[in-house]
């Protein structure tokens, strides 16, 4: 029996209600890497499916990169818990070797390619939503990485509509990473960790921006335990006219990288 903490259930329930993430009749394709985040996501959706007054379907989909990944245990895990699972085998890894220039960001390359496969599968199989396992730490790290290194202020919305019409939802966006780690540990479920990151197999320097940003935020949180509460509320309290725009019409509205 899977134990999902009251805290996680409450946060996801509230996010779902406030942002209208899951609706009656939805068919949701869930990106399931096998990591602790998307693992929590599939179990949270399984729980909601059992108790919600509305009906929806979901399927966990794992994209492999053609690196000889051994992930049958993920299918077994899903089967054990009555969760539909599909593995999409790709050759993204080979393609990456040709496409990625030394020191360019392979993380975003893999993420874009993977998203392409998830979208195509969702559209081909009649799913209307794609769910991803990003959490609050991801949103904050992404914001500060963009702010410090890419000269832009952007993060990850709980819900948006992609150009192809699919709605992308992030039910865990207000959960803290440590809560998701605790979920996997408490339930003693085998997860795939950072060692599976395809970037580790390339002869290039790993990008340090994420690690540096993570450390910085952890240090700041030690000094100010409420920092994530403040950052979270700042994300829906943006005072645009106080920035350096000559004309607010210049604001870009693209959501995806
Ligand atoms: N190989 C994959 N196949 C399908 N979906 C994936 C895959 N890798 C990542 N995703 C989806 O994209 C989300 C964000 O990916 P990212 O690589 O940032 O994962 P993460 O922060 O390590 O999370 P997780 O613990 O779920 O792996 C994941 O939570 C998952 O929903």
UniProtKB/TrEMBL annotation:
It comes from the Bacteria. SUPFAM superfamilies: Adenine nucleotide alpha hydrolases-like. Keywords: ATP-binding, Nucleotide-binding, Transferase. The keyword ATP-binding applies. The keyword Nucleotide-binding applies. This is tRNA 2-thiocytidine(32) synthetase TtcA. Residues 28-196 form the tRNA(Ile)-lysidine/2-thiocytidine synthase N-terminal domain. GO terms for biological process: tRNA processing. GO terms for molecular function: ATP binding; transferase activity. ATP binds at residues 31-33, 37, 63, 133, 138. It holds the Pfam family ATP_bind_3. It comes from Aliarcobacter vitoriensis.
């Amino acid at each position: 029996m899977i134990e999902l903490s009251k805290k996680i259930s409450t946060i996801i329930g509230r996010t779902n209600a406030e942002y209208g993430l899951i609706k009656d009749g939805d068919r949701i394709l869930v990106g399931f890497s096998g990591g602790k985040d998307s693992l929590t996501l599939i179990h949270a959706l399984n729980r909601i499916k059992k108790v919600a007054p509305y009906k929806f379907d979901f399927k966990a989909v794992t994209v492999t990169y053609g690196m000889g990944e051994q992930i049958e245990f993920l299918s077994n895990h899903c089967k054990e818990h009555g969760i539909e699972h599909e593995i999409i085998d790709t050759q993204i890894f080979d393609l990456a070797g040709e496409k990625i220039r030394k020191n360019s960001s392979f993380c975003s390359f893999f993420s874009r390619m993977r998203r392409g496969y998830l979208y195509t599968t969702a559209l081909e199989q009649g799913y209307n939503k794609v769910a991803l396992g990003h959490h609050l730490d991801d949103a904050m790290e992404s914001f500060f990485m963009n702010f410090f290194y890419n000269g832009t202020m952007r993060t990850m919305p709980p819900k948006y509509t992609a150009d192809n019409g699919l709605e992308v939802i992030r039910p865990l966006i207000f959960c803290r990473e440590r809560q998701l780690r605790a979920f996997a540990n408490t339930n003693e479920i085998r997860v795939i960790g950072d060692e599976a990151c395809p970037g580790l197999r390339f002869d290039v320097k790993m990008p340090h921006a994420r690690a540096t940003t993570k450390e910085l935020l952890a240090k700041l949180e030690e000094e100010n335990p409420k920092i994530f509460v403040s950052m979270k509320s700042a994300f829906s309290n943006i005072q645009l006219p106080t920035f350096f725009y000559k004309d607010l019409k210049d604001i870009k509205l693209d959501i995806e990288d």
